[in-house]
Amino acid sequence: MNTTGTPPNRALRRGRPVRVAAVAVALLITTAATVTTAAARTVPTVPERPAATTPTAIDPAAERPAETPPGVVDLEVEFTVDNVNRTRGRCSADGEEYTVRGHLTAPEAVLAADSPSVALLIHGTNTGEWIWRLDVEGRNYVDELAERGHASITIDRLGYGSSDIPEGFASCSGAHADIAHQVVERLRAGDYEVRGDDPVAFDTVVMGGHSSGALVAESVAVSFGGVDGLFLTGWAAVGITDDTNRRFLTAYRTCLEGGEEHTDPGDPRGHVYFDPTLEDFVEGGLGPHADPAVVAEIEGLWGRNPCGVMVSEPMAILYDLDLVGEIDVPVHLVFGAHDVLRQGVEGYPGLFTSSPDVTETTLADAGHFVTIDAGAELLYDTAAEWMERHAPTS
Length: 394
What we know:
- This protein is an alpha/beta fold.
- It has a single domain, classed as Rossmann fold.
- 31% of the residues lie in helices and 15% in strands.
- The chain is globular.
- 53% of the residues are buried.
- Residues 120-377 form the AB hydrolase-1 domain.
């Protein structure tokens, strides 16, 4: 399946692109370590976003809250996990037990099936579970997939949203991959809490990841296995832009000082905004043709990120680039043509040299938040077709 018109370059030699990309990420790490503002690499210019795309207000009549489709359940779930890092990428975590929370959104028929399948969906650094379940009709990924016959588990990662929020340096990117692996194991065993129902043991578990959530998913596949496929959106471990570097370096400096200032004594320390301003958050996430209802909804979702996770990601990317060729399950990648955080990603699918099936989709009008941006209907259709091929429920 390829909706871009150009097949992935499966003949691409792995060594050279990995070395080039690794140099780019290494430059970002070196730049961060010296706390300078120099760009780590030169990248193609992102298509300019027209002025006045982001409205300051929205007509209440235009609001379209998402509604759970008929025959679909949307249930709260909890997973007890250990904050440890047993991946092949080194970083530190506090080793404590925590609870991560989220939702199971699925057709009732899937949950009653003999061999059910599910996608565990992981959000990126500067978002949350909401990137998969935005409260806007027609832009709620899990509802759209459920209408097409597929089950999803979404979670807030440790340190985000409804999940436990320890000090910001208590965890790291590798630990988040380990936690995701633990969730996969519990989904297969039916060993988790479901409010108002009994847990289901899933026979097939694929992982979806948005942005650095895709890095988490790739790390799970490399370090632990146990997943049946990867559906990755808004991500490539190459193509880091000047916009990405500016955000990262600003946040890195703040983390060196202990994180954002705050006055609430109960607010855990060591957290930072990846996007320095609300305008950066909106323009870094959405393309020039975003639905005004989506723009208005996400303006209230700009949030802080755990410093330990964010500052460990450049090194995690280096590990990922060295190991991504070992991933041996089907992979589908979704890019946004107007993504200001990733450009020049055409060679990335070719790095999955051990995968039996690598496909890709590019959304012509979308930015970084491809799951909720303009043209997302193509993503929903593509995801459902991919699930039918690689994670069917029987």
